[in-house]
Write a structure and sequence with these properties.
Shape: extended
Radius of gyration: 23 Å
Number of helices: 4
Number of strands: 0
Distance between the termini: 75 Å
Strand content: under 5%
Order of helices and strands: HHHH
Helix content: over 70%
Structural class: mainly alpha
């Protein structure tokens, strides 16, 4: 193992490569988000002439995916600025993904011509599981933020 100055140069070189990797991943998230955004509106315009509710479902699904990609992009930018990765953005992404699934499954059920008992049971199970995931992630977010909350100063209003 190298020692002395050459070891530190190797570590600095590897850290620089890591930064380039994060920059390329961040740019990829941003480009994917922009691509999904344009594609979502393109699909909306194509489908809306025939079936507006389905077009809205497709667009909503794509826009929530864009929000997820932008949240991941923001996480990478935050890491590049501070050198720290926070848990909070991943909780946001999980919440958005679970809500996205609930909305998608719900809309598919509404748009379906017929719903048999098995499909309805699967729908209820999906909504229940994803609803529980949303609640668990929101609770996790609440407890993650709890230590950061500062108590508001206890100032009583003055009497006139």
């Amino acid at each position: 193992m190298p020692s002395g100055p050459s070891r530190f140069l190797s570590i600095e070189f590897m850290e620089q490569l890591e930064n380039y990797g994060y920059v390329s991943v961040g740019i990829s998230f941003l480009l994917l988000g922009m691509t999904v955004f344009v594609y979502g509106w393109w699909e909306f315009a194509k489908i809306a002439t025939e079936h507006v509710p389905k077009a809205i479902l497709v667009l909503l699904n794509d826009l929530l995916l864009v929000v997820i990609l932008l949240e991941l992009f923001r996480t990478v930018v935050h890491f590049l600025k501070t050198g720290e990765i926070s848990l909070e953005p991943f909780l946001h992404v999980g919440i958005i993904a679970a809500v996205r699934k609930i909305l998608t499954v719900g809309a598919e059920m509404v748009l379906a011509d017929t719903i048999d008992e098995l499909r309805f049971t699967q729908y209820l199970f999906d909504v229940g599981v994803h609803g529980a995931v949303v609640l668990a992630l929101v609770a996790g977010l609440y407890f993650y933020r709890a230590p950061r909350r500062t108590a508001a100063p206890n100032v009583s209003p003055r009497a006139p």
